[in-house]
Amino acid sequence: MQQEGRLLSSADQPPRLSIVIPVLNEATGIEASLTPLQALRDQRIAIPVEIIVVDGGSSDASAHIAKPLADRVLSSPAGRALQMNLGAQHATAPALLFLHADTHLPKNAVEQITQALNGHAWGRFDIELAGRSGWLPVVSWMMNQRSRLTGIATGDQGMFMRASTFKAAGGFPEQPLMEDIELSKRLKRVSRPACLQAKVVSSGRRWDEVGAWKTIRLMWRLRYRYWRGVSATQLAKEYRDAR
């Protein structure tokens, strides 16, 4: 495992929020994703943040590009759940935000998270999918409404929570798919999520590449089969085959 860090001076304060970003072969976009977060790393601001990038064995320059733009760059076996759990283990803040590498935060996101966690144990943002397909606004609306009705969040909505709550829930289950849904179920036993109306902007490349309605049908079929008890390992194979 490789780790990069920073030193705090006597005038600095420790981070209040740890942003954990799992990465796998994201060299083309990781700099654009991390650059807007740099102002949040200043320990002199009211709510300082640390950025932890967890690389899952990229074959490109993802880790190298991320090093100057993160407080820690960790190496992990591939697997989003494994990577996020490792990042959480090295986090030092009392609150965690799990952010996909192709997702961008809205303005004042840290302040909104801090306020939300005063009354909730966990939460997520609404999402806006960005891409070529004209159906992406509809898909985004459907995702947000479904999440609001069910209390289930997906990883691309920017899930955040108290670190103590994450630990008590056992972290993300180390399964190859639906780890965000399973963690949501565990967290719902503690409280309903804070559903923030501010939107993270996430890449709609999956919908653009495969097709919007084909992707919708695939994801709903996989979720239904998961609800019926099909293993995440089997569903992950079906997901890879379909793509």
UniProtKB/TrEMBL annotation:
The protein's location, in the record's own words, is: Cell membrane
Keyword presence, Glycosyltransferase? yes
**A GO molecular-function term, please?**
glycosyltransferase activity
Quote the SUPFAM superfamilies the UniProt record gives: Nucleotide-diphospho-sugar transferases
Q: Which Gene3D superfamilies match?
A: Spore Coat Polysaccharide Biosynthesis Protein SpsA, Chain A (3.90.550.10)
The record's EC number reads 2.4.1.-
Enzyme category, top tier: transferase
Q: Which UniProt keywords apply?
A: Cell membrane, Glycosyltransferase, Membrane, Transferase
Q: Which domain of life is it from?
A: Bacteria
Its GO CC terms are:
plasma membrane
Q: What is its main location?
A: membrane
| PANTHER family documented for this protein | GLYCOSYLTRANSFERASE (PTHR43646), GLYCOSYLTRANSFERASE 2-LIKE DOMAIN-CONTAINING PROTEIN (PTHR43646:SF2)
- Show the NCBIfam families listed in the entry: glyco_like_mftF
Q: Would you tell me the protein name for this molecule?
A: Poly-beta-1,6-N-acetyl-D-glucosamine synthase
**Species per Swiss-Prot/TrEMBL record:** Vreelandella titanicae
Lineage of the organism? Bacteria, Pseudomonadati, Pseudomonadota, Gammaproteobacteria, Oceanospirillales
